[in-house]
Amino acid sequence: MPVEISDCWFSYRKRPVLRGVNYVLPEQRTVLLGPNGAGKSTLLSLAASVRRPQRGTISYRGIESTDREYRRRIAWLPQQVTVMPGLTAREQVAYVGWLKGMSKTAAWAAAAEALSRVELSEKLGEKVTRLSGGQVRRVGVAQALVHDAEVLLLDEPTAGMDPRQRRVFRDTLAALPAEVSVLISTHDVADLAEESEHVTVLHKGKIVYHGDVEGFLAHAPSDVVPGRRAEVAYSVLCGDE
Ligand SMILES: Nc1ncnc2c1ncn2[C@@H]1O[C@H](COP(=O)(O)OP(=O)(O)OP(=O)(O)O)[C@@H](O)[C@H]1O
Question: According to its record, how does it sit in the membrane (predicted)?
Answer without folding.
Answer: Peripheral membrane protein
